[in-house]
Write a structure and sequence with these properties.
Blueprint: E1 2-3, E2 6-7, E3 17-22, E4 33-38, H1 41-51, E5 56-60, E6 85-96, E7 102-118, E8 125-131, H2 147-160, H3 167-172, H4 175-185, H5 190-198, H6 202-228
Parallel strand pairs: 3-5
Antiparallel strand pairs: 1-2, 3-8, 4-7, 5-6, 6-7, 7-8
Helix pairs in contact: 2-6, 4-6, 5-6
């Protein structure tokens, strides 16, 4: 896996302990690019430490309880439990804004499983991890996804919301890029994003994305029909 100027081939290229950034609703996948606006002091410190080291940060969602799903409010100061799976990213671009913020782009390396949280004196959280080493390889099942069904679901979603897309770029994208890009940009909730992250392989992720999109479309159509009655 080539990310920026770095190449990640084996587990030896991945640190055992990483700083993690718990962010609800954010999805980073291997090869994907996630822009972030960093302004909290603890995360500014985390980014500065990463930039001076191996530039690696673990994106992860706080674990969502069923009764929290409808609320966007989350007390980060209480150190909510973390999801079991996240994704490592390398900082490939960064810039200071002049008003105390840092803008970064994280490019996905591989997913990881949290083994344990490491207690430290830093204001941000760190975890001991086990990387998904298969993510460092080329996706072997990229040719097996149902590209037609994926594009049809995406097209229907755009149509329902009166949105447009750059179909020339979409038609040129490879299957792996297409599946991961659509998963990351999808406006789904935290639970759905986590399901896409934890999908066993690219084919499963594509099928999950299609299923979630079709369920959302069905709900929108049912809601519309009920309003007409």
């Amino acid at each position: 896996m080539q990310v920026g100027n770095a190449r990640y081939r084996t587990g030896a290229d991945i640190p055992d302990v990483v700083a993690v950034f718990p962010l609800r609703g954010a999805l980073l996948l291997p090869g994907g690019k996630l822009p972030l606006n960093i302004f909290e002091p603890r995360y500014l410190e985390m980014v500065e430490a990463a930039i001076s080291s191996k530039r690696i940060i673990g994106m992860i969602q706080p674990h969502i309880q069923p009764d929290e799903e409808e609320s966007d409010e989350l007390d980060e100061t209480a150190k909510p439990p973390l999801s079991k799976v996240g994704c490592l990213g390398r900082i490939t671009t960064f810039s200071e804004t002049g008003d105390g913020r840092i803008l970064i782009t994280l490019e996905g390396i591989c997913r990881f499983r949290v083994l344990e949280e490491v207690h430290c004196r830093r204001p941000y959280r760190q975890c001991r991890i086990a990387p998904f080493l298969t993510d460092l390889e080329d996706a072997r099942d990229a040719a097996n996804i149902d590209r037609e069904a994926l594009l049809r679901a995406f097209r229907d979603y755009l149509e329902v919301h009166n949105l447009e897309a750059d179909w020339d770029s979409i038609s040129r994208a490879g299957n792996e890029t297409l599946v991961n890009a659509l998963s990351m940009m999808s406006p789904f909730g935290a639970a759905e994003k986590q399901a896409l992250l934890e999908a066993a392989d690219l084919k499963t992720r594509a099928a999950t994305l299609i299923a979630i999109t079709e369920m959302m479309l069905a709900k929108i159509r049912d809601d519309y029909s009920s309003r007409l009655q």
